[in-house]
Amino acid sequence: MKIGMIFPGQGTQFLGMCKELYDRERIIQELFEHASSCLDQNFVRLCFASSEKELKETINAQTSIFLASASIYTLLSSKYGIKPDLVAGHSSGEYSAIFAAGGMTFADSLYLLKKRALFLEEATKKYHGGMLAALALPFETVQAICKKYDDPSSNEKVAEIVNYNSPTQFVISGTLPELNAIASDIKAAGGKGIALNVSGAFHSRLMKEAEKNFTTYLVKVDFKDLQAPLVNNVEAKMVQTNKDIKTSLVKQMSSNVLWWPAMEQFKNMDLIIEIGPDSKYSKMIKREWPTVNIVSVNTPKDVEQLLVTLNIEVEKTEMELILESELKKNKGTISGAV
């Protein structure tokens, strides 16, 4: 069976993500501990007991989403032998995809994401912007609306289509007054505009400086050729060499995310698995391709259903084995009670 794996990016974070799996699986607890040690950040508190506002901050969102995705993937691959034949990640989710394909270590992925997020956060403080999803309108209509408000020669008036999520869902990145005006125009045209849960105008030209600053840190990471191809964001092209991975990671900071063209490369997969805190990309794909075999995995129930789909025997958790053992020990005394 050919398995494609996709990984979500910023905007999919929420308080309590991965909590059920964390409570049940020691391997996930260990990765949370490892991540906390790597970045000197208490990820248990951040993911389970902070606030939506704190979790939304760029550095917190990107590192915690990677941690959730990487933890779930590690559970699937190390415990059940489920590995991908093709991977892709949406925006910062590309780091999770590269990790899953063996392109860089868990610690290096966190290191780069932190640096990336720090530079992006600097840019968001310098340029106040955001992102807006445009739904139920064709590309040509959205493009025409954006052109009304975008001044390509300026960083003061920015309105760029940066994410091509599906044939009728696009994400616009830009300065806040322009996004507010665009939201009104989208509604007037019969579409729907939804402000995204992010803190800046990511993937737009406002991130060019952040991209330049980030480039110097890539030399500190030992990238490996991938064990499974990555369909990258910037070209929707399959890449596998360490050189191509580096180029993709740098360019995507201020370039389009060609998500839907990338998803076209997954059409010949027998099963597509979305791994991460949310299931919005699997739902999006299912709407466009109703017959596709796609699942999302972010809870123990999701894992169990996936194992059934793949005809893999469900293993009991350490806690379940301990409880079972205790019940056997106490069976005699319990049965004799009045």
What's a quick, concise take on this entry?
With 338 residues, this protein is α/β, with parallel strands linked by helices. It contains 16 helices and 10 strands. Helices cover 49% and strands 14% of the residues.
Query: What is the H level of CATH, i.e. the homologous superfamily of the largest domain?
Result: Malonyl-Coenzyme A Acyl Carrier Protein, domain 2
The CATH architecture category of the largest domain equals: 3-Layer(aba) Sandwich
- SS element count, helices: 16
Task: Tell me how many strands there are.
Answer: 10
Gyration radius from CA atoms, angstroms: 21 Å
What does the average pLDDT come to?
93
Strand content: 5-15%
CATH class of the largest domain: Alpha Beta
Helix content: 40-55%
The separation of the N and C termini measures: 54 Å
The biggest beta sheet reads:
4 strands, parallel
Residue runs with pLDDT of under 50 for 5 or more positions: 333-338
Alpha-beta content class: alpha/beta
The run of helices and strands is: EHHHHHEHHEHEEHEHEEHHEHEHHH
Overall geometry comes to globular
Number of separate structural domains? 2
Task: For the largest sheet, list the strands in their spatial order.
Answer: 2-1-9-10
CATH level 3 topology of the largest domain: Malonyl-Coenzyme A Acyl Carrier Protein, domain 2
Oligomer: single chain
Structure write-up:
By secondary structure, the protein is an alpha/beta fold. The chain has 2 domains: 3-124 and 206-322, Malonyl-Coenzyme A Acyl Carrier Protein, domain 2 (3-Layer(aba) Sandwich); 128-199, Malonyl-CoA ACP transacylase, ACP-binding (Alpha-Beta Plaits, 2-Layer Sandwich). Helix content is 49%, strand content 14%. It contains 16 helices and 10 strands. Strands 2-1-9-10 form a 4-stranded parallel sheet, sandwiched between helices. Helix 2 packs antiparallel against helix 5, helix 7 packs antiparallel against helix 10 and helix 8 (139-149) packs across helix 9 (176-188). The N and C termini lie far apart (54 Å). Mean pLDDT is 93; it is low at 333-338.
